[in-house]
Write a structure and sequence with these properties.
64% helix; Helix Hairpins; 129 residues; mainly alpha
Length: 129
Amino acid sequence: MSGGGLGILPYWAAIALLMIGLYTTVAHRNLMKKLIGMTVFQTAIILFFLLLSVKRRATLPILAGPPDAAAYMNPLPHALMLTAIVVMVATTGVALAILVRVHARYDSIEEDVIAARVATEHPDGPAGP
């Protein structure tokens, strides 16, 4: 064995988190669990993107002499993922606010219970435009 086997471990961890988040989002009927799964999924995507941007034996791009592009990291992926984190937090905040309103209206955050209560409120189906 060449000794580089642990080099891909972070990638497998990101993929495992991605699958856990996707499974949680798809398999559960509780809206809070779906939101947690969505957040784990988004975090795994950010982790995977940052792992792809890692450059071994590179330094920060602070120029003290003649520029050598091979010696520096690219800061753009990190800046983009910082923006993605802000969007993720904002999305989670809005989703939590919606969940609070849904719970106040239907007294549940289970999809089946909400669907049944909506069906009893609107027996002819939801009102169209």
